[in-house]
Amino acid sequence: MRAHRPTPQLADHLEGLYRAFPFGRSVADDPIAAVRPLARDRRSAEVAALCAAILAVGNTTAIRAAVRRLGDLADQDLGRFVADLPGAAQRRALAGFRHRWIRGDQLAYLAGVLGRYYAEHDSLESAFLAGFDAGGFAGGVDALARTLRGPSGDGRRAPPGYRRLFPSPLDSARSPCKRLTLLVRWLARDRYPDLGLWRRVPTGELRIPLDLHVHWIAYHLGLTARRSRSWAAVEEVTEALRRIDPLDPTRFDFVLCHTGISGDCPKTRDPTVCGPCLVRPDCLMWRGRTVAA
């Protein structure tokens, strides 16, 4: 079967989907809703956003609960937790924490890494820019991943599985790096619902955080011909969206993601659900088909 390509009307249909999207409903169901109460200053916002991005595995209800639980363990100030608490106190506080395969010992090690980093730098934006200026967005994610992999300030060995939390698009696996691209979107994009704390990363250079929902919809709209998630697929989807909005291609990310999360896209042909969908005429599932009147 030949590749499904975007229809000439897709840009208009996506714009209509964006304008009609119920942001109020979906922001409340997104991990960023759990970040905002913890964002009392730039550092706290960065650490809260990083932790939420790391924990963004599984359903959104469980993710938000995990972020809130982590906030409770840090007395609602993750910036102070990483900068001021001794390592032993961090490890005690997080000893019983677990979300899916992500453990408290890994997050305590991260707290040590961040404490060491913030002793010398004001913001993680500097780490990203060190790679971005030389190697573009992929270079920025790589530099950020290498910074977060450690070492910690107290010389401890990283716990099992820790470094796998921070893949790089430059690694041989060519990971889509969904969690770090999501973090950068939250921090660099200055339009709702994102935080807009990083001012030196152009929004036109951001890349789509390619989760399962976004990839499925992007493939069926012809934004990528790649059937599996990879950094090449990230670049392909982003470039297709950049042709629609060169200055802010990732603004469609939230809408596409939550169209999948909410069930607005059932990922099967369901005339009742799909009939009103503004991008149904572009969807591979409906190619050559119409909804019965």
Q: What tags apply to this protein structure?
A:
293 residues, mainly alpha, Endonuclease Iii, domain 2, two-stranded antiparallel ribbon
Report on the architecture of this protein:
By secondary structure, the protein is mainly alpha-helical. The chain folds into two domains: 1-23 and 208-293, Endonuclease Iii, domain 2, CATH 1.10.1670; 31-203, no CATH class. Helices cover 51% and strands 1% of the residues. It has helices at 10-20, 23-27, 32-35, 42-54, 60-73, 78-84, 87-94, 104-118, 125-148, 178-188, 212-220, 231-242, 251-261, 271-274, and strands at residues 98-99, 102-103. A two-stranded antiparallel ribbon has the order 1-2. Strand 1 and strand 2 (102-103) form a beta hairpin. The protein is globular, with a radius of gyration of 20 Å.
Write the layout of secondary structure elements.
Layout: H1 10-20, H2 23-27, H3 32-35, H4 42-54, H5 60-73, H6 78-84, H7 87-94, E1 98-99, E2 102-103, H8 104-118, H9 125-148, H10 178-188, H11 212-220, H12 231-242, H13 251-261, H14 271-274
Antiparallel strand pairs: 1-2
Gyration radius, rounded: 20 Å
User: How would you state the average pLDDT, rounded?
Assistant: 94
Which word captures the global form?
A: globular
**Count of discrete structural domains:** 2
Unreliable parts: none
Terminal CA distance reads 29 Å
- How much helicity do the residues have? 40-55%
Strand percentage lies at under 5%
How would you characterize the largest beta sheet? Answer: 2 strands, antiparallel
